[in-house]
Amino acid sequence: MGNWLLPESLADILPAEARRIEELRRELLDLYRTYGFELVAPPLVEYIDSLLSGTGSDLNLQTCKLVDQLSGRTLGVRADMTPQVTRIDSHLLNRAGVTRLCYCGTVLHARPTDLLSSRELLQIGAEIYGHAGIEADLEIIGLLLATVNVAGVRQPRLDICHPGVLRAILDADPQGAACAERVIARLREKDVPGLRELSETDCGLRADTVAALVALPTLYGGTEVLAEARDRLPALAGIRTALDALQRLVEALPDVTVSLDLADVGGYAYHSGIKFALYAEGWHSALVTGGRYDDVSHAFGRARPATGFSLDLRKLAAGLPPAEPARAIRAPWGQAPDLAGAVRALRGEGEIVIQALPGHEHDQEEFICDRELVHQNGDWVVTSI
To answer: What is the tens place of the pLDDT at every residue in 1-22?
Structure first.
């Protein structure tokens, strides 16, 4: 086994792709700044109790753990930056009004989320804290759509749901809390026969509860799902509130292709309100995920409404057309002051200037040298090749 081999589901990023990822990172962070989002940079590792506060079991399973040699306490390598940004807002910045924060950094997953995913992600995202209304959700979704538009993603589809629907169904049944994990596992697999069995096993859910749960996997599709859900689901206040929130969101996004999936239980313990995922042709799974998570900041001693989104820049770049080589100017090697001055001036204008080392004049595979710096009539000038 060669010492150049990497662990499973990890990969190097080679020059052309690395350049495109970095260009996307810069362009997106500049975009977020125009919306008023401030950049933060939390550490790669934290004490595990802080890193996982309020996030549920899913993130715990994805987090790599190690022992701090200084304190003896358990550290976690972050698998998601959102809890860290929430800690910064609620515990360090401690602002009273609305705070907009953005971030970009590496995260590590203990296991890949699927066969085609990497364990190392370059996560970029944006969060709004301090406003509980739909206006914050709409701003976040607008920024999300601007993000994929900048990257060149065409015909995105926004898939939305609300965990309040399932919570209302379970809360109305005395056995709902005890059966929640089994219900979520079956809904995740869209296991309708398994859901029906919950009333017959020791779980003991009521028949009307099971009927509502069985209906959820079928409530998937366009905006007509909302009317169908009102007809088929119990007339519970929590369900009505969740469907009303989804209705307002859909009506506020008339130009966006929207689908609904009321059986989507991803991040059920984490999300407190509308959650969404963006899909597009060229990517095998959700390209962007996000939603409202008002309850996470409780763990840091200060309750703050929160909504946001994140995506993996590596995954985003991988679904785009292959990166084109950059165009550059070829220049001879030399230390003469006039040549050095000409090269410095061109680089100051943003040009890529490659001074070819002796014997390697045509080795620049990453670049297309379509121009050349040549000495003519006592001056250095750029000519086409």
So the answer is: 567 789 999 999 988 889 899 9
d(CA 316, CA 284): 11
344, two tokens: 């410095």
Do 248 and 169 sit in the same domain of this protein? yes
Q: What is the mean pLDDT of the chain?
A: 91
CATH of the domain at 298: 3.30.930.10
Interval 262-321: pLDDT, tens: 999 988 888 889 999 999 998 989 999 999 999 888 777 788 999 999 999 999 998 888
Number of domains in the chain: 3
Burial of 51 (0-12, 13-18, 19+ CB in 10 A): buried
Within a domain: 261:
yes
Residue 120, domain member (yes or no): yes
258-296 core/surface letters (b: 16 or more CB in 10 A; e: else): bbbbbbbbbbbbbbbbbbbbbbbeebeebbbbbbbbbbb
Does one domain contain both 47 and 150?
A: yes
123's CB contacts (< 8 A; 6+ apart) are 80, 81, 103, 104, 105, 106, 107, 310, 311, 312, 313
Least confident of 216-220, 239-243, 266-270, 273-277: 266-270
CA distances from 22 to 6, 27, 82, 117, 256 (A): 22, 9, 21, 20, 28
